[in-house]
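Researcher: Here's the sequence for the chain we discussed earlier.
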Amino acid sequence: MVVHQAIRLSARILASLALIAAITFAFTRLIPVNATTTGFFYLVAILMIATAWGIVESTIASVVAMLCFNYFFLPPIGTLTIADPQNWVALFAFLATSLTASQLSARAKRRTKEAVERQREMERLYSLSRGLLLTDAAQPVGKQIVQQIASVFEFPAVALYDRASGETYRAGTEDLADVETKLRDVAVRSTSLQDSAATVLFTSIRLGGQPIGSLAIQGPALSDAALQSVLNLVAIGLERTLAQQAINRAEVARRSEELKSALLDAIAHEFKTPLTSAKAITTDLLAAPAGELHQHQRDLIGIADESVDRMSRLVSDAIQLARIEGGTFQLNRGVHFPSSLISSALKQMKSLTDGRQINVKVADDLPLVSVDAALIQMVITHLIDNALKYSPQQSAIEIGARSEGSNVIIYVNDRGAGIAEDEQSRIFDKFYRGKTERHLTGTGMGLAIAREIVRAHGGDISVTSRPGEGSQFSFSLPAAKQSSSR
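Model: Thanks. This is the structure I predict for it:
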């Protein structure tokens, strides 16, 4: 390639010298004119050479034209000496004018060429960006990117290494040998590498300061601005692919969660009818006079009645959890006293709290809260039920409320075995049961339901516990906004 360039340059120089020789021959042999006219034609020829070819050809032509002008047209003619000092001034003025004119012409040509190249690069970058925006998500995006680059910029070969997937994609009419190793090395080192022998450029692709891949291009060199723009477009294309994949995964997960919640809700409702019938039967049998049933039969019916209650609670929890996860439950807010929420929850738990010491401590002058009373009472009953299960029969349970900033804190304290620190972050997960108390009855959904209900109200729930010292479950509720009176 270098030899071909040298040959073409030599041919252009010979053509320039031939043009100067033709002007000299014409004005010395065919059309005799004065020196001024000859110098003007020499100058026009030099400008034409600079415009058509470049500064090297026009400079050589200027020197040769100056020598011909001196030898053939300035007295004494036929020699390179000048008799009249004024002719020296004219000769050097001609040389300076021709050199300056050729340089200006060559500079203007170079700038015009650069402007055309920049415009062409901008058009290609626009085509590339449009092509990347129209990529098909069903096909490998990396493969489409290299195909777009090779097609738009007419590169013989392009290769792309995607660090996230570890894949290398190729495009173009030629094949780059041993390109994977270099691409990985450039991506890891976040550098650029120029293979002069194969005219291949290896450069890293960065996004947010981190290398996410590398690109290899074989062909004519791009300007720094165009190359950086290509790298930015490729980085955006790869990042867009990752974002789209994350969105697709989230959508699949959401649809799966909705389907699971819908199925769970449907199954739970199917259980409700037979459970209601079974509860009615056991209640009626237990209400029978003492003489009608043997004690053994009454004990068996009592066990069945408790099992029906447990199953009913499990189904109710499943329905509630399905609605929460499916996003189908709504808050029916109202303004309530925290003390009334606690007292209502305790009434619902009366059958379970009989015989247990329950201490209620509600601070005076608590602000009102805007909540769904039924759901918040459900949260409190879950916490009370949890405390009853995990604390000794003879120990006291404390339920209270206090003001903390713009929130109302409702808490339940027990004197149970406590919760290990490594379990406290998991205690609100669905179906999670403590390691030491797995023999106790329960659905494993109560605390998960409580957390989602509290979060739906704009609050949060937490646990503070130490092994052997009991636990405190507390949740916050934003205070209701006070309406200003006029």
